[in-house]
Specification:
Helix content is about 35%, strand content about 10%. It has a domain of about 250 residues: Aldolase class I (TIM Barrel). The chain is an alpha/beta fold. Helix 9 links the parallel strand 8 and strand 9. One of its GO terms (molecular function) is RNA binding. Its cofactor is FMN. Keywords: Flavoprotein, FMN, NADP, Oxidoreductase, tRNA processing.
Amino acid sequence: MKARRSRKKRPCTQRTNERPEWVQALVKRANVQRFSTLSEPPSAHNPFLDTLQHTATNQVGLVSMRIGHLDFDDRPLFLAPMEDVSDPPFRILCKRYGADMMYTEFVSSAGLLREQEHEHQKLEIFDEERPIGIQVWGGGIDEVRNATPMVDAAGPDVIDINFGCPVRKIVQKDGGAGVLRNLDKMRNITAAVMEEATRPVTVKTRLGWDDDSIHIVDVARMLEDMGVAALTVHARTREQKYKGDARWEWLRTIKEEGTRDMPFIGNGDALDPEAIEAMFEETGVDGVMLGRGALGNPWIFERAKTYMETGELPPPPDWEERVQVVAEHLSLKCEWLGERTGVMEMRKNYSSYFKGFRNASTLRHELMQPETKAGVLEVMLNFKPDAPDIQVPAAKLPEETADPDAVDTKKPDVPDDLPSPGGDGADPEVGTKKAELPASMAS
């Protein structure tokens, strides 16, 4: 499937003579220039990215783990498979900011077999993203077996099996974490994928179904004996979903008692550089997978690497640098999906990108209005984050009444599958509108 592009070019009508050079570059790119492919680096100069890449380039890399034919330097960082988040634009952005490997959104084996366009689109990967794994899930052994050749043909570096998604609608189909109630089925699905795949197979799962059925050490031993190339464990049970603290003590137990040579990757509450280093130090995992910590925060990978290498924590990007990253993300979205769809899809990302800035809620409200890439950029470039507090306009009363109780409280007409905004209490690794359905951070 080829990347879909916007066919329209709009002349630059904005005044740029009084704006900084980096702003002029963004405006020019938004109105005139288009990427030839998703893998082409952006033309606008980004000093924040340059600084982080310079730091990473000067670090001494030590091979610490191998997944199939893939060698990784010491303490590799992985982008988690997050539904409605880990699409090509976001993956490419994370790669540019230091992710060692990433995974796609989880792909429904049943959807592939039914030729659903949305599921087949998830198989689309680009060279700049490599190494990359495509994650697949399914509730039936034959279903997953028959879908595996389709996944394999897409050319990922590895195929990952989702045995950890806690979402009810997935579990009810015996997929995701539902398999934790039937370890024989887990073994059979894994064997089916390995029989059909021509590339390494990895697994992502959880500690167990609930506290009374934590058999993860035995599961790790079983998977390694089967020849699974790597194991990632989210340190919560299915019953916990994303509540409470991740139980890192289990990660150390798995590493010490459940694995011998199989690479082991930890996941859960790795939300900032300090926590990432702490997971390595406290658990002994070979790698760390980031989910919520990367949402609206793709630079976390390089910041974490710099922190682990030097002990110094680089500051997060300032306002101008953050606008550059958002503009880069938006451009990639529009190149992949076309301008109108790209602009609409990008709306779900603004909350996490601008969280913590003064008047962020006002900015988010304003960013929901434009329907063109240039319009979105104009809002960001004209916004003053240090201005006095601004109130978001209240909903207007219907013209025929002044009764406040008559206000139309229907939600805006936006896609149902937007992920919830970031934050420790939310579940951004999800793409459903129901809070209890944190669809697929995958596991």
